[in-house]
Design brief:
3 helices, mainly alpha, flat, single chain
Length: 77
């Protein structure tokens, strides 16, 4: 995994953690830790829990950065 993928993974985990924390606070559910959003739950043999979280985080991070750049270009900042 390259340096860009690591950055997008962290950004995507931040976005997912923020959304998840707000949503779970509103619905009064158990909150997950940032580490679980970044690496998946501990002691799980499921492929998605081991590798899927990194993929989802990378995609969400990329979408988030593109969206921010698009807003900056549209506003002319």
């Amino acid at each position: 995994m390259g340096f860009g993928a690591v950055i997008f993974n962290i950004i995507g985990a931040c976005v997912r953690w923020t959304y998840g924390t707000i949503w779970r606070t509103i619905t009064k559910q158990k909150k997950n830790t940032f580490r679980e959003y970044l690496h998946g739950p501990d002691n799980s043999g499921d492929w998605f829990d081991m590798k899927g979280h990194e993929l989802i985080n990378t995609v969400i991070g990329l979408i988030f950065i593109v969206l921010i750049c698009w807003i900056i270009i549209k506003l002319g900042i």
